[in-house]
Design goal:
It is found in: Cell membrane. Pfam families: Mem_trans. InterPro entries: Mem_transp_PIN-like, Na+/solute_symporter_sf. Its main location: membrane. The protein contains 19 helices and four strands. By secondary structure, it is mainly alpha-helical. The chain has a single domain, classed as Na+/H+ antiporter like fold (Up-down Bundle), CATH 1.20.1530. A hairpin with a 4-residue loop joins β1 and β2. It is globular, with a radius of gyration of 21 Å. The chain starts with a helix and ends with a strand. About 2% of the residues have low confidence.
Length: 379
């Protein structure tokens, strides 16, 4: 086993493809920071870049990832990823507060949600995609439970008047204003979860992908092979080129915007705050260790029972995404509901820097863990 691990480490350390992706990530993020710091990029451009990535680039990436051939083993792996995701975020949402019991409630809520919910979509996916091109499906499946918790429980926890304040009352005891507010919170929560371009693209793509397993569905033939009529990329080939073009904008825009986000916070102030160092350590070290241990446990069950396989690509995607800085949405919640917004902003700045610094270290750790017998090399 030690020979296998050492061999895997040597291979990854010698892999220019891997390190080129990591160096490119760091270089473009630093470029974004410098251009924003020197006022070449206006700070308000950050929101525009993020919007383009979230509404156009990432949905295209999500859909394109599922426009590939499916087999039973791949489907089983992605379903396991989904279950691990729900288990992980359940653990994190309900236990993260334990790390901050000595702080006042507003700070507790903000720090706990920042630790539990990383910027998996905006920060994580472009980096993972640069390292492993075939990681898109796992990344988007892992993001389904993330989005459910981000827009439901995290929203309720971060709101000034959590839903629990009203649901504990009998319906007859609620005032008209409380009933309207309760209804609006539910509507907003459901809208945020389901009316989301990335999630919609993920669900559509997953349906197209998984239905290829239906016997007899591959009835269309353009001369090379039979395929499902839902495979729009094969049915109308320009779709593939359109999605490829749109997904290409994700990585450079996301990395530049991340650099601009770092410039927005007060890095000097963040460096002096012990609480932020403590929270950043939990975010970029402890949280990834938790997901890694969870994956190792689940992968061991699959390996020794022979029921499913877990590959190193999925392991890498999930750990790197978890090691990302806090989700932008959580920071937006803290600002909107006045829950320690300065702490959230500075934590994002410091943890973004630490996420970039620790990225190569995590790649080495993941490579060593991925060499264990419960993981396969396939993507």
């Amino acid at each position: 086993m030690l020979t296998t691990i050492s061999s895997a480490l040597i291979d990854v350390l010698k892999s220019w493809g891997m390190w080129s992706a990591i160096i490119a990530t760091i270089a473009v993020i630093i470029l974004g920071y410098i251009l924003a710091n020197k006022k070449v990029f206006k700070q308000e451009w950050e929101k525009v870049m993020i919007k383009i990535v979230m509404v156009v680039g990432l949905p295209a990436l999500a859909l394109k990832g599922f426009l590939s051939d499916a087999d039973l083993e791949k489907v089983k792996t992605e379903l396991v990823v989904l279950l691990v995701g729900f288990a992980f975020y359940t653990i994190m949402i309900f236990t993260s507060k334990l790390y901050f019991l000595k702080y006042e409630k507003d700070v507790q809520d903000t720090l706990a949600m920042c630790i539990a919910l990383a910027s998996t979509t905006f920060f994580g996916i472009p980096i993972v995609q640069a390292i492993y091109e075939n990681s898109t499906n796992t990344a988007n499946i892992f993001n389904i439970p993330y989005r459910v918790f981000l827009y439901s429980l995290a929203f309720i926890i971060m709101s000034k008047k959590p839903l629990t304040k009203t649901v504990k009352k009998d319906k007859n005891e609620l005032t008209v204003e409380e009933k309207i507010e309760s209804r609006n919170i539910r509507k907003k929560t459901l809208k945020n979860i389901f009316v989301n371009p990335i999630l919609i693209a993920t669900i559509i793509g997953f349906i197209i992908w998984i239905t290829q397993l239906i016997p007899g569905i591959n009835v269309v033939n353009y001369g090379s092979k039979y395929f499902s009529p839902l495979r729009i990329d094969l049915l109308f080939p320009p779709v593939n080129k359109i999605l490829t073009t749109l997904q290409a904008i994700c990585t450079p825009l996301a990395w530049l915007a991340i650099g601009m986000t770092m410039n927005k916070g007060n890095l000097r102030e963040a460096f002096k705050d012990k609480t932020l160092w403590y929270a950043s350590f939990l975010k970029v070290i402890v949280a990834p260790v938790i997901i890694m241990l969870l994956i190792v446990g689940v992968a061991s069950i699959g390996h020794y029972t022979g029921s499913f396989k877990f590959n190193i690509v999925s392991l890498t995607a999930m750990v790197i995404m978890t090691a990302a800085p806090p989700a932008n949405v959580v920071v937006a919640y803290s600002i909107s509901y006045d829950k320690a917004p300065n702490i959230a902003s500075n934590l994002t700045t410091l943890s973004t820097l630490l996420s970039i610094v620790t990225l190569p270290l995590w790649i080495i750790v993941i490579t060593a863990v991925g060499a264990l017998p419960m993981f396969t090399n396939g993507g």
